[in-house]
Automatic annotation (TrEMBL):
<keyword id="KW-0472">Membrane</keyword>
<dbReference type="InterPro" id="IPR022057">
    <property type="entry name" value="Chs7"/>
</dbReference>
<feature type="transmembrane region" description="Helical">
    <location>
        <begin position="130"/>
        <end position="148"/>
    </location>
</feature>
<dbReference type="GO" id="GO:0051082">
    <property type="term" value="F:unfolded protein binding"/>
</dbReference>
<protein>
    <submittedName>
        <fullName>Chitin synthase III catalytic subunit</fullName>
    </submittedName>
</protein>
<feature type="transmembrane region" description="Helical">
    <location>
        <begin position="210"/>
        <end position="237"/>
    </location>
</feature>
<feature type="transmembrane region" description="Helical">
    <location>
        <begin position="101"/>
        <end position="123"/>
    </location>
</feature>
<feature type="transmembrane region" description="Helical">
    <location>
        <begin position="243"/>
        <end position="263"/>
    </location>
</feature>
<keyword id="KW-0812">Transmembrane</keyword>
<dbReference type="Pfam" id="PF12271">
    <property type="entry name" value="Chs7"/>
</dbReference>
<feature type="transmembrane region" description="Helical">
    <location>
        <begin position="168"/>
        <end position="190"/>
    </location>
</feature>
<feature type="transmembrane region" description="Helical">
    <location>
        <begin position="68"/>
        <end position="89"/>
    </location>
</feature>
<feature type="transmembrane region" description="Helical">
    <location>
        <begin position="275"/>
        <end position="296"/>
    </location>
</feature>
<dbReference type="GO" id="GO:0006457">
    <property type="term" value="P:protein folding"/>
</dbReference>
<keyword id="KW-1133">Transmembrane helix</keyword>
<dbReference type="GO" id="GO:0005789">
    <property type="term" value="C:endoplasmic reticulum membrane"/>
</dbReference>
């Protein structure tokens, strides 16, 4: 029976589930002789992502496989779009929360090449390179969602945006989330200490801290962000139009998660393990970030010649 913090079911049923990379090596090292046949039926040199997944894209170069090529292409295209949004954000010198939003976009930009490498079926499962990249990816994701929540807090103008009182805690907490999540992920993947790995029993692929930081924490921050921005737009600014941008962004994000966890396997099986649903999830997530930028743009001013959107 699956318990809280168990990744076993996710690693079997969700193709290209990133955090499964952290457990493969753990299974190889713990009770190796017993687990090679019961949990790792495919050799590491050929294995796709997951632990005995119901559907997985074969590693790039094996039997002519292009790896997770669709998601690789979408990640590359998304990097171009997000780079353009970072540039556009930086040009809006008088906009409230400009530096904080730019940091959020930069962090999202960083997740894209990491996602390309960790879910692209490029590296051998259990390799140190794949574990290290996945651990860093997890750290950036945790910091990314803190930056999302921080953008909503900045929008309340409790502290003035762009000042040390805003930026020092903003960056300090982001670094804490990145460092803690990355360390936990490294410990799970490389079994550095006994603090966070291996799970018991190993077959459960259990890590409550990793589950909280990569699943619960993002969900909580999204809900808090949406609630705070709804209050600011509707109650403080007394606007309606910007709220539709936030609603659309939230809807796109929810659809991306539904695709990832529900349609991913269907697409993988339907394509005979050539592609899975991660490229659609990436497209929807990037679209959600793009619409989030439009929402921010709609409630901020571009130049110092105009009044600020929010009273100090």
């Amino acid at each position: 029976m699956t318990g809280f913090g168990d990744f076993d079911s996710l690693c079997r049923t969700v193709p290209s589930y990133t955090w499964c990379n952290l457990f493969y090596r753990q299974l190889l090292e713990v009770h190796e002789s017993a687990l090679l046949t019961s949990n790792l039926s495919t050799p590491a040199s050929d294995a796709g992502m997951g632990i005995n997944p119901t559907c997985a894209i074969r590693r790039m170069g094996r039997q002519g496989s292009l790896g997770n090529i669709a998601n690789i292409v979408l990640c590359a295209l998304s990097m171009v779009l997000i780079g353009a949004l970072v540039w556009a954000t930086n040009r809006r010198k008088a906009a409230v929360g400009r530096i904080e939003l730019r940091t959020f976009l930069v962090l999202y930009f960083l997740t894209l090449p990491l996602q390309l490498l960790t879910t692209g079926a490029i590296f051998e499962q259990g390799s140190t390179a794949l574990v290290a990249l996945t651990a860093i990816h997890a750290g950036v994701v945790a910091a990314l969602f803190w930056s999302l929540l921080a953008n909503a807090l900045v929008a309340t103008q409790v502290v003035e945006d762009g000042t040390p009182s805003s930026l020092i805690p903003f960056y300090a907490i982001a670094i804490v989330f990145f460092a803690a999540t990355t360390y936990i992920s490294f410990d799970i993947g490389l079994h550095i200490t006994n603090a966070f790995g291996p799970s018991s029993p190993p077959e459960a692929l259990r890590s409550i801290p990793l589950f909280v930081l990569t699943s619960i924490w993002p969900a909580v921050t999204v809900l808090l962000y949406f609630g705070l921005m709804a209050y600011i737009v509707l109650a403080v600014l007394n606007e309606i139009r910007p709220m539709w941008f936030y609603i659309l962004s939230a809807a796109l994000f929810v659809l991306s998660q539904l695709d990832y966890f529900l349609l991913n396997k269907v697409i993988c099986k339907g394509s005979n393990s050539k592609v899975d649903g991660t490229f659609i999830a990436t497209l929807l997530e990037t679209a959600a970030v793009g619409v989030l930028y439009l929402a921010w743009k709609s409630i901020t001013e571009e130049s110092w010649d105009e009044d600020a959107y929010y009273p100090s």
